[in-house]
Design brief:
It contains 6 helices and 9 strands, in the order E-E-E-H-E-E-E-H-H-E-H-E-H-E-H. The chain has a 5-stranded parallel β-sheet, sandwiched between helices. Strands 1-2 form a two-stranded antiparallel ribbon. Strands 4-5 form a two-stranded antiparallel ribbon. The protein is 32% helix and 20% strand. The longest helix is centred in the last third of the chain and has 16 residues, at 132-147. It is α/β, with parallel strands linked by helices.
Length: 186
C-alpha cells in the first residue's frame, strides 16, 4: 500500500501501526498518507509511493478538531469533490469499545464504502489497552478488517522511556503485546 518492493512501509492486506509519543506528528503523517490514498498531490509520502484507495474511512477519535485542522492544512476548496467521493471522516468515539465489538471496523468501513481505515488513535478505540484480553480482541478486529480486504492504519502511543532510556522496541509500544502481534509493520 505504501512503499516499493524493496522498501515496504505498509503491505496490502496487512495493518500498519505508527507509534510515537504525543505531539510529534502522527496525525500529520496520517493525513499526508490519506492525501496520497485519495490521489491528491503527487502520490508519495516520505519519498515513497502510496497505492491509491477507492475510499478512506478516517476515524477521528483523538481530538477531532485538531485532526480537522490538520486536514484543512492539506486540503482546500479545490479538493471538495474528491473529498466527498473518496473520504469519510467519523468524528468522536466509536459506537462501542473495539475490544467488545471487534467486527465494528468492518461494519463501519462497509457502511462508508471504504477499503482503507485510519484509526486515530487506538487509545480512543479501546479502554483497556494493557489488558491482554482487550489487546487480543483489538488484534482480532484488525484481522477481521484485513480478512475483509481492508487495509488499516493505526496511530498509537509508546510507553514512556524507562530509567532514561528511549523507547526503541516493540516492547515499548503501550499496552498488551497482542496489539502489535498481528500488525504487518510497526
Amino acid at each position: 500500500r505504501w512503499g516499493t518492493p524493496l522498501s515496504v512501509l505498509w503491505a496490502r492486506g496487512e495493518s500498519l501501526m505508527i507509534v510515537a509519543p504525543p505531539g510529534v506528528g502522527k496525525t500529520t503523517l496520517a493525513v499526508q498518507v490519506v492525501e496520497a490514498l485519495i490521489e491528491v498531490g503527487d502520490g508519495a509520502v516520505l519519498g515513497l509511493p502510496v497505492q491509491p484507495a477507492r475510499r478512506v474511512l478516517y476515524l477521528a477519535m483523538d481530538r477531532p478538531r485538531q485532526i480537522a485542522r490538520a486536514m484543512t492544512r492539506r486540503f482546500s476548496d479545490q479538493h471538495r469533490e474528491v473529498l466527498r467521493d473518496r473520504l469519510t471522516v467519523h468524528r468522536g468515539p466509536l459506537p462501542t469499545d473495539l475490544a467488545k465489538v471487534p467486527d465494528q471496523l468492518v461494519t463501519l468501513a462497509r457502511k462508508a464504502g471504504a477499503d482503507v481505515v485510519v484509526v486515530d488513535s487506538l487509545k480512543d478505540a479501546c479502554a483497556k489497552l494493557t489488558d491482554d484480553e482487550s489487546g487480543s480482541m483489538v488484534n482480532r478486529a484488525i484481522q477481521y478488517a484485513n480478512a475483509a480486504d481492508l487495509d488499516v492504519l493505526v496511530l498509537h502511543h509508546q510507553r514512556k522511556g524507562q530509567a532514561g532510556a528511549k523507547p526503541t522496541t516493540l516492547a515499548d509500544v503501550y499496552g498488551s503485546t497482542w496489539l502489535t502481534a498481528g500488525a504487518g509493520s510497526v
